[in-house]
Amino acid sequence: MNLIFMGPPGAGKGTQARQIAEKYSIPQLSTGDMLRAAVKAGSEVGLKAKAAMESGGLVTDEIVVGIIGDRINEADCAGGFILDGFPRTVAQAEALEVMLKERSLKIDHVIDITADSEALVARITGRSTCSKCGEGYHKQHKAPAKAGICDKCGGALATRADDNEETVRNRLSVYEAQTAPVIDFYKNGGSFKTVDGMQNMDAVFQSLCDILG
Ligand code: AP5
Ligand code: MG
Questions:
Q1: Residue list, CB under 5 A from ion ligand 2
Q2: Choices 3.40.50.300, 3.90.1150.200, 3.30.420.60, 1.10.1520.10: CATH for 2-116+172-212
Q3: What span, in angstroms and rounded, lies between the C-alpha atoms of 209 and 2?
Q4: pTM (2 d.p.)
Q5: Interval 78-111: pLDDT, tens
């Protein structure tokens, strides 16, 4: 099962992709997570991506298409994968079509998780993530039992460099200008579905499971 999770920053792509990945035993391929790891490692890709990520702009299509092309060749993707945050431009969606065709693969569901802009700002500015296992938290919607500590593994919670209000607003306008057109790219295909991301996290998960079966 090959899936695409779309949606604006903070819609819940990562939160849901982690759970769906666990339930269906397929990997979550988050370009944001991969790029953050590259920045942290100081690799060539990381050095090229850092400035765009910090300002809330997009990293070049060439870089992200390269990352995803390499990643879907790995053995754990043989039974399917969830693309979280890719494609984010029409050019990326077109490049993905080519990659899939070359590998005789297809996307089974493109799921757009929707949410209101003001809720997105509040979600992102309240977010923290475990630096050890990647579990996500929110100061109101999913607070850890002990402040700053992951409930699951005891790791330290960290906030992302791009999760301040100014950068979030820029990410939202970049989404409107460059990523919203990707919805039109997929909309007329039979695999496109929308899920209301304003529901609570468990209800969003249930809606996704209803689609995936
Ligand atoms: P990326 O990491 O993909 O960030 P994003 O798209 O801005 O999305 P987020 O990860 O912020 O949100 P999410 O939808 O995953 O929400 P989450 O589940 O965490 O990309 C970062 C940067 O990398 C980009 O800006 C760009 O520079 C670069 N990049 C990445 N991919 C690229 C590409 N393809 N092309 C070019 N550049 C690329 O939830 C958010 C918070 O809300 C959490 O605290 C969570 O607990 C809470 N929450 C989740 N669901 C709910 C709910 N239903 N109710 C209440 N709270 C909720
Ligand atoms: Mg995410």
A1: 14
A2: 3.40.50.300
A3: 14
A4: 0.96
A5: 999 999 999 999 999 999 999 999 999 999 999 9
